[in-house]
Specification:
The protein is mostly helical and 928 residues long.
């Protein structure tokens, strides 16, 4: 066996120079000169082990295919990590040098070379597995079967390793499994089987994959295992079977076709193959695989285009991969019924396809020859420098080498010859597999590929920031209860989602938020189908999560809101301000009065649905910040009214109703303070409420369980608190804060309105009168509403000592700032820092308390903007101060609002707000 024709002058010179540097004074040997000229890898090997030259020239060794173990049985348990890894790497270097010599200098048939490489790899992996097992067993003992025999870890070789057709410089795809879940025996301490075999797997991977001074044995790729990178490193037979039966995908069937156990056969091999066989091979003729393989080839073709992989003899049209697709497609279609096709070897499968008359002898011979020709070229390319490549060289040295090996005069002739071979392969591929037009949805390629392989870089416009979120989502899937139907829908949905996220240029936060939504609904196939079957809903989900982190969180907490995404016409059109109360009444007509649990859920769902609509209009600019607050306030008022009605019915049903009351005039009212009182409710605002009534203790209810009226209203208030604060499946309704009532937390939950008035006149602190400025009655009959308005006006218009008022207001403000402000030199707390929102609110409250006696009109409104406008009109402040304070207030609220939607807290860059901060601070100095 020999490549007889002469090297080019430059190649011969290179080989001669290298030979002389290694074997100075020795007689030249042409085959070694040829080897050194054609392979940089061989040059490096002989530099480290020059004595291998004579071993290569031994004719008996060249024909010897006996496989010796790199580690003998005595060494398996004795060698430490460094020694074992060194022996494995030197073995690999020695025998890969031999294969290089056979291929480059001895014209060895490529079929023999790849089979030899595969057998050597088997021995390396098996020896490493035995060594790793022994090392872990020394510490932890072994998992034993019922007969007391050690249960081994099975190593499944995938891809070309499994097919016995390994590349010269290939990485290896492995899957690990073990027979039974039993704890170890005989070690220092017993451990679970999963832990034991995981340690073995980790040590095996280290032995092969770790790069040392002696290099690397193989790059080990574990991504083909169940659940991919996010899955456990090793699984029991039962877990493996469950996975492939319930969650295995088409591409995994295709991959598992090549799966072959590595090492010496043992009693568990047949059991393992039997559990996989029903997944890989269907009992019927399965033409569905053709479509799956067509899609896989489209993904590969797209990847070739994306990476600009020109002159790629593996992935390009007519390349090695297309031969593999042709053969494996026919195996998967017919292998379930024709057992002779159930082989990992491509060359054996081609012969069996002829025997079964699936393919003509001529077609098989042509495919076989073309495949071997391309594999021979691939082998040459990789031997040049022991690099995993299938791309034809673009440098002069390797082009010369390839021309010599293919016996072509120049590189252009090489290209013509290779193109003819690949053209023949591609023609056969199109006949068997077919190929859809390029107008197919891009989801059929790049996005499916990115999802299946958990690799966003496979997309044309990848956002690499998404990668951790995608990996985390895949990891969570391993723990999720999702059936095969849900898995199928998810596999269709995720490429569509990746496409939409790419189109909208979504941020990593938005991608993470959508994954969070999907995690919530992953076991509820109906929701997955809703998003898949309604592209508009999916688009709205992406759009809203890109606009607002709050919306994403809101939907993830309450997935029922996904229904709202179907109709954008409704989604982006909030209910008119005046219609919320009527709409909630209509909503509750469908609900039984006595079903309290259902009523509580309905209240929450009504709120969540309408908050989503408001937020959607807000995030897309349909509503201004002031209008958003108006809508959120109107929504809260409607819910309070409905909740009072529910609580009233429950209490009346139990105790009867107080004297002189009716459904319309309950003698009960709700006073709103703070943001609710000032028409400034936010998305996550609590409600500051005080409950009042107009009865005294001398009247009683008219029911069988009659109680005095004051007790009735206390129970009504307690029932309201229960309706709002109880956490159901849909969360709480609103956080109710009633500490602004007379006597605070120690006071009665519901108080007579006249007692409220007396308290305000005689006991209330200045800060309680400040709070009253931002109060209004949001529920109650006309007589109560009018009376409260008069009480509020009387209290606010009281004569006050100006200096004491100033002192009280300033001291309270400083106390709040000391406890609540979160800003620093760079960041400005929009609410609590000096010159912020609360300063404006305190200025407004002071203006009312100090001037209302002379100007009762200042008590008309409870919101800051209109109070400031009235204060300027009445010359309590200048027009300029009014404009500056209102401008700052709106700017702060708008910024706070946007930050709340994106859950960014309330501290903004101080430098961006300097003008407003300075003007508010100046106003504070002027007023106080």
């Amino acid at each position: 066996m020999s490549n007889l024709h002469a090297l080019t002058e430059s190649l011969h010179q290179l080989g001669q120079t290298r030979f002389e540097s290694l074997y100075k004074g020795q007689a030249e040997q042409e085959k070694i000169i040829n080897l050194l000229s054609l392979s940089d890898f061989a040059w490096n090997c002989l530099q480290s082990q020059p004595d291998l030259k004579d071993w290569l020239l031994d004719d008996n060794e060249l024909t010897n295919r006996k496989i010796e173990a790199p580690l003998n049985s005595a060494e398996i348990s004795e060698l430490d990590d460094n020694a074992a890894m060194a022996k494995l790497r030197l073995y690999r270097e020695k025998y890969w040098l031999k294969v290089a010599f056979l291929d480059l200098c001895c014209a060895n048939p490529i079929a023999d070379s790849i089979a030899y490489i595969s057998a050597l790899a088997n021995q390396l992996i098996d020896s490493a597995n035995q060594w790793a097992f022994a090392q872990v067993a020394k510490v932890s003992g072994m998992a034993l079967d019922d007969d007391g025999n050690a249960m081994p870890m099975l190593v499944l070789g995938m891809g070309k390793l499994g097919g016995g057709e390994l590349n010269y410089s290939s990485d290896i795809d492995l899957i690990f499994s073990y027979p039974r879940d039993v704890a170890t025996q005989g070690g220092r301490r017993s451990i679970e089987a999963q832990v034991f075999y995981t340690k073995v797997a980790q040590k095996l991977i280290m032995a092969l994959n770790q790069t040392t001074v002696n290099g690397q044995v193989f790059r080990v790729d574990m991504r083909l295992r169940p659940f991919g990178e996010s899955g456990p490193l090793v699984m029991s037979f039962n877990a493996m079977e469950d996975y492939y039966q319930e969650q295995g995908r088409e591409w995994e069937r295709y991959a598992m076709l090549k799966g072959r156990l590595i090492g010496s056969e043992n009693r568990y091999w047949d059991e393992f193959y039997e559990l996989l066989r029903p997944f890989v091979y269907r009992r019927y003729i399965d033409f569905s695989v053709i479509e799956s393989l067509r899609k896989m080839k489209q993904m590969i073709a797209q990847e070739v285009r994306r990476k600009r992989l020109t002159n790629n003899i593996k992935l390009g049209a007519g390349g090695i991969r297309e031969v593999e697709f042709i053969v494996q497609a026919l195996q998967m279609v017919r292998g379930g019924r024709e057992a002779n096709l159930q082989t990992q070897s491509l060359l054996v499968a081609l012969k069996e396809l002829v025997n079964n008359q699936v393919m003509s002898n001529k077609e098989a011979e042509l495919l076989t020859q073309n495949y071997l020709d391309l594999r021979q070229i691939e082998q040459y390319l990789q031997i040049f420098d022991d690099k995993q490549t299938q791309t034809l060289p673009d440098d002069e040295l390797n082009q010369q080498r390839l021309c010599y090996l293919l016996n072509k005069e120049d590189f252009n002739q090489c290209l013509i010859s290779i193109e003819q071979t690949m053209s023949q392969v591609h023609s056969e591929f199109e006949q068997v597999i077919g190929f859809e037009s390029e107008t197919a949805d891009p989801c059929e390629s790049e996005y499916i590929s990115a999802w299946e392989m958990t690799d966003v870089s496979l997309m044309c416009e990848p956002n690499l920031d998404w990668q951790p979120a995608l990996e985390d989502f895949k990891a969570r899937l391993t723990k999720a209860k999702i059936g095969s139907r849900g898995r199928d829908i998810l596999d269709k949905l995720m490429p569509l989602l990746l496409k939409q996220l790419t189109v909208t240029k979504a941020s990593c936060d938005a991608f993470t938020m959508i994954c969070q939504v999907l995690n919530k609904i992953i076991s509820r196939t109906a929701y997955l189908e809703l998003l898949y079957e309604n592209p508009g809903a999916l688009n709205q989900l992406v759009s809203l999560c890109c606009h607002s982190k709050w919306i994403g969180e809101h939907i993830s907490r309450y997935p029922i809101l996904l229904d709202e995404l179907i109709d954008p016409q409704v989604l982006y059109k909030p209910t008119p301000l005046s219609a919320y109360k009527n709409e909630i009444r209509q909503y509750f007509l469908r609900i039984e009065h006595g079903d309290l649990e259902l009523q509580m859920e309905a209240l929450r769902q009504f709120k969540q649905t309408h908050q989503l609509r408001i937020a959607a209009a807000d995030a897309t600019g349909v509503l201004s910040v002031m209008k958003v607050s108006d809508h959120l306030t109107a929504l809260a008022e409607a819910i309070v009214e409905q909740a009072v009605n529910i609580a009233w019915h429950a209490c009346v049903e139990r105790f009867g109703q107080p004297a002189n009351t009716s459904e319309q005039e309950k003698g009960f009212a709700v006073i709103a303070y703070g943001k609710t009182g000032g028409f400034e409710v936010g998305y996550d605002s609590d409600l500051d409420l005080v409950f009042v009534h107009n009865h005294d203790g001398s009247s009683y209810t008219d029911g069988d369980k009659s109680i005095d009226s004051r007790q009735f209203y206390l129970k009504l208030a307690q029932r309201l608190m229960h309706l709002f604060n109880t956490r159901t499946a849909s969360g709480i309704l609103y956080e109710l804060d009633t500490r602004l009532r007379p006597e605070g937390a120690s006071g009665l939950l519901a108080i007579n309105l006249e007692s409220f008035y007396h308290y305000q006149q005689t006991q209330a602190w200045t800060w309680e009168h400040q709070a009253l400025v931002r109060s209004r009655m949001i529920y109650g009959q006309t007589s109560l509403s009018e009376r409260f308005a008069q009480i509020r006006k009387d209290v606010l218009c009281q004569a006050r000592d100006n200096e004491k008022l100033k002192t009280d207001v300033v001291e309270m403000r400083e106390k709040m700032r000391a406890h609540l402000a979160k800003g620093n030199d760079e960041l400005f707390d929009l609410k609590q820092d000096r010159g912020g929102i609360t300063d404006i609110e305190f200025i407004t409250q002071y203006l009312v308390l100090n001037n209302a006696m002379q100007h009762p009109e200042l008590t008309t409104w409870s919101d800051n903007v209109r109070i400031l406008a009235d204060a300027a009109r009445l010359d309590c402040i200048s027009e300029q101060m009014q404009q500056e304070l209102i401008a700052a207030y709106i700017a702060y609220r708008s910024r706070y609002h946007v930050m709340s939607l994106n859950q960014q807290g309330r501290c903004a860059p101080r430098a961006e707000l300097t003008q407003h901060i300075d003007l508010v601070s100046q106003a504070w100095q002027q007023v106080f």
